[in-house]
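Can't paste images in this forum, so I'm doing it all in text. The chain is below; anyone willing to post the predicted C-alpha cells underneath?
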Amino acid sequence: MKTSLWRIMASAMIPAVVFTACSENDEPGDGSASGDGNGKFVFATTVQGSNATSYVLLTGESLDNGNLSTVNNGLLNDGATQWVFYKDFLYALTYNQGNAGTTRSYILNGNGAMQARDMEYRISRFSSYGAYKNDIITMSTGDGPDNLTDSHGYKPKTLLVTYLDVYNETSRANDTSTGAYSMENFLGNGEYVTLAGAEQSGSKLYCGAVPMGLSQYGAAYDNGKWIRPGYENLVHTEAGGSGSGAYKAGELVGTQYPDECWVAIYDNENMLNPVLARTDKISTPCGRYRSQYYQTVWAAENGDIYVFSASYAKTMTDIRQKTSLPAGVCRIPAGSTQFDDYYCNIEAQTPGGNRSFMRCWPAGGDSFLMIMYDRPLTESNPAATELAIFDASSKKLTYVTGMPDDVTSIGKTVYSQNGKVYIPVNVENEQPAIYAINTATAQAVKGVTIAATDITGFGYMTPVK
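Text version of the structure:
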C-alpha cells in the first residue's frame, strides 16, 4: 500500500498538505482501522471548558466504533496548528503570523501511552509543508537576506525551508545567502511564488507553485519590466490591509496570469533547480485559508500525479486577476515531468454546476476525498461542510451520503485503509466523531466518538523504542 505524508494534513489553516505512503507520505501510517495488535490510533483533541481550553492526546483501538473520553485520560499538551503523523512520530507544528512557531514531537512508548520527546525548538514561519525520506519539511516564501538587497532597499522573495529530522530529532534550515533560493521571476514572468505542499513520488518532490504577483523587488526591477501593460494601477501606492491581507507600497498583489497552473518538480529535498510543468486547463494548484496554502498535488497509488485547482482566483476583486477556468483536475503521468491531456471539470459535476472545493486528499487507489463548498466561491461566506469522492479513472464526482445534519466543520486529517477513508466530523451540539467513507459507494458511517470539543488530528502509531 502506498501512503502519503500529506494525506493526514487536512488542516483548516494552511493552503497546506497530508501524509499516507506506508512510511513516506502524508497519511498516518499502516494498520487497519481496528489496529494491528501492536500500535494504536492517536487522536489530538481540543476540550473547551468554561474557563480554559485544554489539548489532549488520546489513544484508541479502533476507528469504526467505540467512545473515548478525555476525563482523566490522555496526555496534556500545548496544541498545534497542524498535527503531522510520520514514520511513527507525531509532530505538533505551530504557526504564528510573522513569528517563529514552537514545535515538539511525540511517540507511543512501550507501555502504549503517548510520550513527549525531549527536544523542543522553534521553526520558521510556514505556509505549507510536506515530507521527504526522514524529514518533515516546512516551507514559506519570505524576505531574502540583507546581502541581496537591491538599489531601492528591497529584498527578493526567497524560499525558506526547515527540515525536521524525525529520527535524530534535529532541525536545520536552507542556506539562502547565495540567492539560489530566490522565488522572484520563478515562472519567467517576473512574479514570485510560494509553494503548496510537497508530494514525494519516487525520488522527486512535486510542489504546487502559487503565483503571488509582484513583490516590491519584482515590480521595481528594470523600471517595471514585469508589470503588464494596462496593469500599472494594480501596483499599490501606499501600504494597507491587515494580517494575511497586508500589503506594502510598490507591490502588485495577486497574479497577472490567473488562467494557468504550474507545478515545480524537484530532484531531491534540496529544492533547487526545479523542472516546471505548466497547463492552461486549470488555475492555481492549491486550496487556501488566510496565509496557509493547502496541498492539492497528490500521487495516486500507481504513481500518477493528479493536480487539482479550486480556482480561488475567482474571488479576486479586479477582473484582470480573476480566472475564467472552473475548478478541475489535470495529471502528470508517473515518471513524467509534464502534463498529459487528462482533464476533468469538477465544478460542472456539483449542484448548480458552479461550486468548488476547499481541500482534497488521496483516498486509496485513484480515488480522492474532497471537502466541498455549499455555494459558489463568488458568493458570501461559503461553508466547506460537504464531502465528495472523486474517481480519477472514471472522472466522476460523487457526493458522500450518510453524513450527519448540522455539520459545523470537517477535520484536518484523513486515514485510508481497505477501501475506506476516515475523517473527523464536527456537528453542532454533538460530540465529534470519526466517519468512515466507502470510496466505492461514497456512503459514510459514524465510527468512534470522542468526548471533546474538536478532533484536530488523528493517525496510527506503533511503539518507538
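The radius of gyration is 21 Å. The CA atoms of residues 146 and 155 lie 7 Å apart.
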